[in-house]
TrEMBL record:
The keyword Magnesium does not apply. This is Apoplastic invertase. It comes from Solanum tuberosum. CDD domains: GH32_Fruct1-like (cd18624). InterPro entries: ConA-like_dom_sf (IPR013320), Fructan_Metab_Enzymes (IPR050551), Glyco_hydro_32 (IPR001362), Glyco_hydro_32_AS (IPR018053), Glyco_hydro_32_C (IPR013189), Glyco_hydro_32_N (IPR013148), Glyco_hydro_beta-prop_sf (IPR023296). Residues 379-578 form the Glycosyl hydrolase family 32 C-terminal domain. Its EC number is 3.2.1.26. Residues 57-376 form the Glycosyl hydrolase family 32 N-terminal domain.
């Protein structure tokens, strides 16, 4: 307890300066794993190490993975295609790996669907999307790299045998490429076509991520037959000073309920979401707005901001996401890639694998219309083992912390609801922080810094004596006009391992909730050996952290609940489950 709670202004300053150094020196840390190591791309591991390998997150038996390419539901089967290196554990030799499932939890790994093999993708078969055409025929659009300069075109592939329930084999017709960039487009920044949607005029439309100078762009293309495509005179949307837009995603969301909508839905009571993965900082941002179907333009709402000051799907290690409409359960599901944070390529080679997919999430529009809500798909609950109801209505005074026992703390699902009687002890929000990212504020006001209303939350993947731990917590501030709720997932003390290149950020985001009436906050964390995936306030704010403890592994991991604020916190309910391992074939 003393180790966790000790703090002083000097010690806090040291932590802040250290974190600032890490952030500045690792500004590429999130995407350092994208570096190209030609001499290591085909370096096979002697064996696959399981120390930090996840139990219930999606990952293949070995080697490197990144973007989830084209998730889809077809004839009773869920398909996940993803970028994969079949020869090693760093980026390179990329193919479209292919896995299938009946429930999005238990998977069968198949042979890759697409290999670079022809002149239109000889140097790479990169990300794309799937579309189900009206005659129930699936088609994949993907980016092909045609030369050593990374010049990019857009290709398509179709199943070789529609009667095969798993669609094992795919054909790349010889009339590829379908779309070649014109002279106005940066040929090396022209990738990741979206799922297509059909307009009222009967034309198909897709968006392709790009940039012109400093302006990020969602280029719009139209086609009547899905073969001949023409670029629109203007992009669907663009924004200055946002850099290259990767992995765009454009889809409608209902204003009435949590149901998902097909990309071609043309009914009333909808808004639209445009998500882009920003190449400049490797984070994902989205806006909510309206789609002018007559002008073929997307207009974000006034309170929806493009770029690094805007909304994020996940405020942690989460990138290159792709959503799809699931007609089986009438929902929209988003997949996202979470890469490794032990950023030296030797680490990946030694352990024999790199990268996982985050838990698939149902996504819908918050009733306020201002943001999305995300929540783990309901099928995940089938992996919960016997339920442990740890406690109800337990009060935590300042400095109190207790251990949640009876579960496997290294592989668990925890849901906890906190309440408090007053907001009076909320700390003042320093106006100087207004221009900082939430992550920077979390670095200043971490879990060890005593406060008023918070910090309180979970201490995950902790060693017995707290030499290692990853806290996930809330802290409430009193701003000039309202209260600001900071949610943090702080990896700075997640490991004793000495590795200057390891990325251990204090990930954080603000939670848009009104505490005046309810005075409650909820938290759900999915803990899986080297990942802590957390959902605040019912999925309003999501944060995924990758961590690599040396002591807090397997049976030696511990889970705690804590309060380090002067306001007493009540744990209204805490439910925890050990998680089983899904079947992977």
């Amino acid at each position: 307890m003393e180790l966790f709670m000790k703090s002083s202004s000097l010690w806090g300053l040291e932590i802040y300066l250290f974190c600032l150094f890490i952030v500045l020196s690792n500004i590429n840390g999130v995407f350092a794993s994208h570096n190209i190591f030609l001499d290591l791309q085909s370096s096979s591991a002697i064996s696959v190490k399981n120390v930090h390998r996840t139990g219930f997150h999606f990952q293949p038996p070995k080697y490197w993975i990144n973007d989830p390419n084209a998730p889809m539901y077809y004839n009773g089967v869920y398909h996940l295609f993803y970028q994969y290196n079949p020869k090693g554990s760093v980026w390179g030799n990329i193919v479209w790996a292919h896995s299938v499932s009946k429930d999005l939890i238990n998977w069968i790994h198949l042979e890759p669907a697409i290999y670079p093999s022809k002149k239109f993708d000889k140097y790479g078969a990169w990300s794309g999307s799937a579309t189900i055409l009206p005659n129930n025929k699936p088609v994949i659009l993907y980016t092909g790299v045609v030369d050593s300069h990374d010049s990019q075109v857009q290709n398509y592939a179709i199943p070789a045998n529609l009667s095969d329930p798993f669609l094992r084999k795919w054909i790349k017709p010889n009339n590829n490429p379908l779309i070649v960039p014109d002279n106005s487009i940066n040929k090396t920044k022209f990738r990741d076509p979206t799922t297509a949607w059909m307009g009222q005029d009967g034309l198909w439309r897709i968006v392709i991520g790009s940039m012109r100078k400093h302006r990020g762009m969602a280029l719009l293309y139209r086609s009547r037959d899905f073969i001949k495509w023409a670029k629109a005179q203007h992009p669907l949307h663009s924004s200055p000073h946002t850099g290259n837009w990767e992995c765009p995603d454009f889809f409608p969301v209902s204003l009435k309920n949590t149901n998902g909508l097909d990309a071609s839905y043309r009914g009333k009571n909808v808004k639209y979401v445009l998500k882009n993965s920003l190449d400049v900082n490797r984070f994902e941002y989205y806006t909510i707005g309206m789609y002018d179907t007559k002008k073929d333009r997307y207009i974000p709402d006034n309170n929806s901001i493009d770029g690094s000051k805007g909304l994020r799907l996940d405020y942690g290690n989460f990138y290159a996401s792709k959503s799809f409409y699931d007609p089986m359960k009438n929902r929209r599901i988003v997949w996202g890639w979470t890469n490794e944070s032990d950023v030296l390529p030797d680490d990946e080679i030694k352990k024999g694998w790199a990268g996982i997919q985050a838990i698939p999430r149902k996504v819908w529009l918050d009733p306020s219309g201002k943001q999305l809500i995300q929540w783990p798909i309901e099928e995940l609950e089938t992996l919960r083992k016997q339920k442990i109801i740890q406690l109800n209505n337990k009060k935590l005074s300042k400095g109190e912390m207790f251990e949640v026992k009876g579960i496997s703390a290294s592989q668990a699902d925890i849901e906890v609801s906190f309440s408090f009687s007053s907001l009076n002890k909320a700390e003042q929000f320093d106006p100087k922080w207004a221009d900082l990212y939430a992550q920077d504020v979390c670095a200043i006001k971490g879990s060890t810094i005593q406060g008023g209303l918070g910090p309180f939350g979970l201490v995950t993947l902790a060693s017995k004596n707290l030499e290692e731990y990853t806290p996930v917590f809330f802290r409430v501030f009193k701003a000039q006009k309202n209260y600001k709720v900071l949610m943090c997932s702080d990896a700075r003390r997640s490991t004793m391992r000495q590795n200057e290149a390891m990325y251990k950020p204090s990930f954080a985001g603000y939670v848009d909730v009104d505490l005046v009436d309810t005075k409650k906050l909820s938290l759900r964390s999915l803990i899986d050996n080297s990942v802590v995936e957390s959902f605040g306030a019912g999925g309003k704010t999501c944060i995924t952290s990758r961590v690599y403890p040396t002591l807090a592994i397997h049976n030696n991991a511990h889970l705690f609940v804590f309060n380090n604020g002067s306001e007493t916190i009540t744990i209204e309910t805490l439910n925890a489950w050990s998680m089983d391992v899904p079947k992977m074939h």
